[in-house]
């Protein structure tokens, strides 16, 4: 395939995935926007509660992420039975993880108070998670089914189901947060109920589609029967992915905690800036998912040349998006931040003032973040996950966290210093993972040897 054909193939697969990721993130985004218009303290509590949920969710989704390259490789090799085995055991692993972490979500308020958060905000976050926490069970199943369908290049249905979930979330939030259409005014608890409803609707729609559209795989036939060999395969590939994702997400969660030490306004500004940066990051995540599928299929065919050319194209696409993002964050910060706050909010100008330098830092670290997520997508596609896990842990927690704390509190730079430390950790991870793929893993595959790690 030429580079142009690779670009078309990546976009055909990646655009629905990008749209799905943006739509999925829009669920969280609408929660933040509506709660920001409802009450700044409720927004700050949702930032805390949502961050805790997301940390555990991302860790558990490592098993779902493992399903994607395994199904792509098996499908390219014509191994239909293997597709069913790894997908089914991916759901098993995800359910087991959800059961283990559910108590942490349901009893989150004491944990958050123990981490130094303001008692009122921590209690509100606990109320949110007391309802929304149950959603981790369907949410992880949704991730497995999306990975399975993406690996089969059935990405359009993933997009449409996610868009439908956004619509349900907006309607439910409008009714339950503010008390419209005869519903009770529940505030942050209304957002939690809406999120839970969305997860349930999403998993039901995907299960119905899978049963009807891919009957040859029989995913739910004798679902209760264990397949220990396949479960072991999913676990061995998935746990390093989960730990890698946890290392990055926990870094941002720790940043949220540090911003909470600076006060409610700083935490609210941090939450808004993080929402904006995360929204644009969904483009890179979608391209990374496409890279994983394309790399897995190239491995299934034993085609190292196509793997290399496809990698060059997808990395170039991600870099172009990063530069556009940087221009937007530096050029229009007040407009972006102001969209999350009511014009009548008394603290509106103060929150925006805190958020402007955070967006400037976000534009810089997104260059590094896009590099690391693209390298991760390619490495996962060829089942190289253990060394990237070590790189992530060292970069984020050996560099990013100490630098964030040192700049934010040691030098007194406040929120900007915390975010500058995040950028340094991400830059280190991006550089090392990129070198890992291009200088170590890809040359081994080109020589016909299996990837290390």
UniProtKB/TrEMBL annotation:
Q: What GO biological process, any one, is recorded here?
A: monoatomic ion transport
One Pfam family name from the record? MatE
What sections of the protein cross the membrane? 49-71, 92-112, 124-145, 157-179, 191-213, 234-261, 267-292, 313-337, 349-368, 389-410, 416-438
Q: Which UniProt keywords apply?
A: Antiport, Cell membrane, Ion transport, Membrane, Transmembrane, Transmembrane helix, Transport
Spell out the subcellular localization from the entry.
Answer: Cell inner membrane
* GO MF annotations in UniProt: antiporter activity; xenobiotic transmembrane transporter activity
Bilayer disposition of the protein: Multi-pass membrane protein
Presence of the UniProt keyword Zinc-finger in the record: no
Question: What's the chief localization of this chain?
Answer: membrane
Q: Does the keyword NADP apply?
A: no
Q: Which GO terms describe its cellular component?
A: plasma membrane
- NCBIfam families from the xrefs? matE
The entry's protein name is Multidrug-efflux transporter
